[in-house]
Specification:
The chain has 345 residues and is of the alpha/beta class. The protein contains twelve helices and 14 strands. Helix 11 runs parallel beside helix 12. The protein starts with a strand and ends with a helix. The chain binds phosphoenolpyruvate and manganese (II) ion (MN).
Length: 345
């Protein structure tokens, strides 16, 4: 893959400063052309650009900015280069627009009654999208694996009754038709971020795909997974950060990678949402992480809520009680308003 680099010089930089940079490039084995770009002095790296990190180039006093012209994931970054934010519309709600997206619901569909009760409560709280899994990727084969097709039927019923758009996980290309008959958004879980056949098949559909970041994936690799979907023609990818690994983690807890979130928002115009529930893996930490994610300027959050967390069949320890969730949502909306009023300044 080609990594072409353009180094934009400060017009007022001195000849000696430029010479220092050019000598460095020559010593490093990099061939370049000197040219100008709309009147700005520019050094165009034409050979071996991979030998130069743009941040190193920017350390030189002659340099204003070093810009990589091509990326390993061109489709995931193209709108950003055009300074256009990607928005995705789902049943009247716009993800990536001016309003905060809140996706909420239980980890798993456990029964029609469980799902209906929580869904109506969430609808009353003004939640945009209902989440609930029928196919569950569990670490242990002895854990609850989800209700499968029956769960999808429950989800469809509740989606119709509430009118809420729904996001649900797909793990296997063989389930594409049945999941597609219910889901407004496909969820790709963090374990399947590298399931390339699945990503390619989802790329051939037109429904939005919420792509979770694998716990150990660098931002570049996450964007390459998005690229698999985009390359097949589906432009509707939502990136979802759900915590990354650091030191050996305790009880499933990960680090919500705020730095990575800022990084991906800087590189790509795709909507970015955060799942503080799976990052925290502990109820008491979900609210502070969610607030931090919204304060960082993300497009939304996905939060697990259960009508009775102590009886949940999966992830009950991190599910919020409905009353806790409602307080959190009010706080998140206030933070969002504050962030937006600052952006306007
Ligand atoms: C989930 O959303 O319930 C889930 C299993 O998430 P993750 O893939 O992030 O572990
Ligand atoms: Mn879960």
């Amino acid at each position: 893959m080609l990594f072409e680099l353009i180094i934009i010089l400060r017009p007022e930089s001195k000849e000696a400063e430029r010479k220092e940079l050019k000598k460095f490039l020559e010593d490093t084995g990099i061939r370049y052309n000197e040219t100008d770009l709309n009147g700005l002095p520019v050094i165009h790296i034409i050979e071996n650009p991979h030998l130069l990190d743009s941040r190193i180039a920017e350390d030189f006093s002659a340099v204003n900015r070093a810009v990589r012209l091509s990326s390993p994931s061109p489709l995931a970054v193209q709108d950003k280069l055009r300074q256009k934010k990607k928005t995705i519309s789902v049943k009247g709600h716009v993800i990536g627009g001016s309003s905060l997206t809140v996706i909420a619901g239980p980890c798993s569909i456990e029964s029609y009654d469980q799902l209906r009760d929580i869904a109506f409560l969430l609808k009353r709280a003004g939640i945009n999208i209902l989440r609930a899994g029928a196919f569950k990727p569990r670490t242990s084969p002895y854990s609850f694996q989800g209700l499968g097709k029956t769960g999808l039927d429950d989800l469809k019923r509740v989606a119709n009754e509430t009118g809420m758009p729904v996001v649900t996980e797909i793990m296997d290309t063989r389930d594409l038709d049945i999941v597609s008959s219910v889901a407004d958004i496909f969820q790709v879980g963090m374990r399947n971020m590298r399931n390339y056949p699945l990503l390619k098949e989802l790329g051939k559909t037109t429904k939005p795909v919420l792509l979770k970041r694998a716990m150990d994936a660098p931002v570049e690799e996450w964007l390459l997974s998005a690229e698999y979907i985009l390359k097949e023609g589906n432009e509707n990818v939502i990136l979802c950060e759900r915590g990354v690994l650091n030191a050996p983690s305790c009880n499933g807890r990960t680090i919500m990678d705020l730095n990575g979130i800022l990084d991906v928002m800087e590189r790509s115009a795709l909507p970015v949402i955060v799942d503080p529930s799976h990052a925290a893996a502990e109820r008491s930490k979900v609210a502070p992480l969610a607030k931090a994610a919204v304060a960082a300027g993300t497009d939304g959050v996905m939060i697990e809520v259960h009508p009775n967390p102590h009886r949940a069949l999966s992830d009950g320890f991190q599910a919020l009680f409905p009353a806790q969730f409602e307080i959190l949502i009010a706080d998140l909306r206030k933070i969002r308003e504050l962030i937006q009023s600052q952006e306007k300044r």
